[in-house]
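Lab notebook, bench 4. Continuing the backlog of folding jobs that were queued last week. Each job is logged with the same field layout so the records can be merged later without manual cleanup. Today's entry covers Alpha-L-arabinofuranosidase, a 347-residue chain. Filled in by technician R.K.

JOB TYPE: sequence-to-structure
TARGET: Alpha-L-arabinofuranosidase
LENGTH: 347
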Amino acid sequence: MYPSSSHTAIDNTTLPRTFNWTSSPILISAKNDSRNVSGIKDPSIIHHNNVYHVFASTASEASGYSLVYFNFTSFATAHAAPFYYLDQSAIGTGYRAAPEILYFAPQQLWYLIFQNGNAAYSTNKDISDPAGWSAPKDFYPGGTPALIQAGLEGGYWVDMWVICDEVDCHLFSSDDNGRLYRSWTPVERFPDGMSEPVVALNDTKNDLFEASNVYAIVDTNSTTTDTTTATTTYLLLVECIGAGSSPGGQRYFRSWTSASIAGPWEPLAATQANPFMGEANVRFQDGKEWTKSISHGEMVRTDVDQRLRIARCGGWEYLYQGIDPAAEASYNGLPWKLALLTQEGGC
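JOB STATUS: finished
OUTPUT FIELD FOLLOWS
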């Protein structure tokens, strides 16, 4: 049973108004192989059956974007994980980027959500079989929805993200122009029947850029572990571009909360000076600040179904992309690498 959306949301005052994180050193970099990949980007991660499963974008100055899968049992060994490039599966070649992995329990099927110029998905019965992904299908076979097309103005339709409640599955996406969109379809119809999008949030381009995550924070009664009686609030993260010198612009995350996936959204830690994650509140384990940008990534999830539930804060982990501040290359040639943030303190 899903947590009821009729429950009262966790009040912002019971969440921290400020967050602090510790970053690991670089954990995952592009392999020195025949693919000539420049950067590993946009990771989506779950911990399932004692294995960390990661899906990410590969970026290359010559060949653009594609997808990669790898797994490991410990972050200490993540650097050695073999890469499986997903263009070897039925996902195929061509532009594919910014994946999200989720398990859709009603169908007992894994979904990989990604962008291919549209909002696309592939399915697989076994997350550990990277060759098993189906050929991509589009959420909008007719092309970019009119509202999004009208708002692009030199931007791009990017960074699709799906989360479901007890009634609907919601598709979030961005246009790189300061608008966050939301579409939805009934759980029983998913992945078909996505509505025309609406604007979920609107701000300036740099203050609401891309790479949204939405999670359900489940706060159970301290005397029970029954999540069907839990209070649920939704946490929204969006990557922004702030002041500072960093390749591609200095990245950080703002945050909001809501009682409903449909909003309205109330700011939580939502400035560059007080971000959800950013240079202002991240320290590095070895004292070496190898990146000033805290960019596109995902919470490490252990509850893997379509509700995207995470526990109350205190020890949250977030796999993110960062970059050497001195790196110089074209955008697709930038050497993004992956590392892990661990939240300090509790709620």
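OBSERVATION: Residues 1-10, 221-227 have pLDDT under 50 and may be disordered.
SIGNED: R.K.
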